[in-house]
Amino acid sequence: MADPEKQMIVEDGSEHEDVSSDEDGDKVIPATTAASLLQDPAVMAALQGKLGSMVGQASGYIQSLPAPVKKRIKALKKIQLEATKIEAQFYEEVHLLECKYHEKFGPLYTKRATITKGDYEPNEDECEWPSDSEDEEEAALAEEVKEKAKLEEAKEEDKDIKGIPSFWLTIFKNVEMIADMVQEADEPVLEALNDITVTFSEKNPMGFTLHFHFLPNEYFTNTILTKSYELKCEPQEDDPFSFEGPEIFKCTGCAIDWSKGKNLTVKQVKKKQKHKSKGSVRTITKQVKADSFFNFFDPPTVPDDPNAEVDEDTQALLTVDFEIGHYIRERIVPRAVLFFTGEALDDESDYEEEEDEDDDDEDGSGSDNDPDFDPKKAAANPECKQQ
After folding, report:
1. CA neighbor of 336 nearest in space, from 210, 230, 251
2. What 3-state class would DSSP assign to 247?
3. CA distances from 103 to 99, 194, 203, 310, 355 (A)
4. Which of 296, 209, 210, 225 is nearest to 257 (CA)?
């Protein structure tokens, strides 16, 4: 079978030659030929592949501009750089504002913690909140008068439950990116996690710290584990126009004081070794790293210089770590109860679906993606514009 792309090129050329030739005017190909070609799936696939390979390639338009115009473009870039610096100042002030309002949220987060931990029992007024499922349950209970004695007995048992059991563990298991980190062996320890708080540093360095508060447990003696993140909020000298706001560039964990034999981040494996000269074999026990949520507190070491390069594997680990730290601070801590019930997850999945539906330029072939888009050529060829 002939290459459909080559076939298209040959037919297109022959069509052009027949139409423009005075000698062969009687051999004009019908005007429907081009339309029929475009209806051929193989031809369309070849055409789209060709166009896709051209996306992002410089057309040479900018290079072809006269020298005075190029000078003016440089002047515009200098103006853009000044605008970028102002944008950085804007984000610095946004961070200060966030620090200020975090203090106002503090008492609410504290009250939330007293309820989830069982230190405070909310009264009837504080518990008043509309819920369809609760209304249905109340209606069902009203009809089941005969079961009243059993229900009273059950209520007596429920009174022994304090706070909201497994509050933070349930949240972690509801959030996919964190659930992937939580191993079965981690769950008993995370049952003892009874609060997560955040503190901010305004500058030098700009950043935040996550504080994980634990009840006494058999695994480690720490009552608080911390994870700190440092932000940079300035354009890079070599690529200033890539600046899009504060960016995490470094994180620091903390030492966990594990009880003997309870370290979940390591495991013992047996390995056979053969003596080089004697040929005898021995079995040794070696300690290796194990998958665990608590590896989160031992991130890769990052150079102090925010512009220093790190290898790809380390960068990949840091990228995921930064994303998780930011998500806990930005989303989970402020809206913990909604992540516990799953309502926050429903809201986010709805938003993602809407984004997909609004994606009108999936192949990236729009003119906005071409840095050397030539408006003159576009005006001269209006038929090339997408309908």
Report:
1. 210
2. strand
3. 7, 21, 16, 36, 34
4. 225
Q: Mapped to the 3 state alphabet, what secondary structure does 157-206 carry?
A: HHCCCCCCCCHHHHHHHHCHHHHCCCCHHHHHHHCCEEEEEEEEECCCCE
Q: What residue type is 240 in one-letter code?
A: P
**Quick one: CA dihedral 331, 335, 341, 347, positive or negative?**
negative
pLDDT, tens digit, for every residue of 118-127?
999 998 888 8
Q: What is the dihedral of CA 351, 353, 358, 364, to 10 degrees?
A: 110
- Asked if 190 contacts 169 with a C-beta cutoff of 8 angstroms, the reply is yes
pLDDT digits (tens, 9 = 90+) for 9-48: 444 444 444 444 444 444 544 555 666 666 777 767 776 6
- Report the amino acid identity of residue 102: H
| Two tokens, residue 101 | 């309002």
pTM summary value: 0.65
**Cα 173 vs. chain centroid, distance in angstroms?**
17
User: Which residues are bridge partners to 230 per DSSP?
Assistant: 207, 250
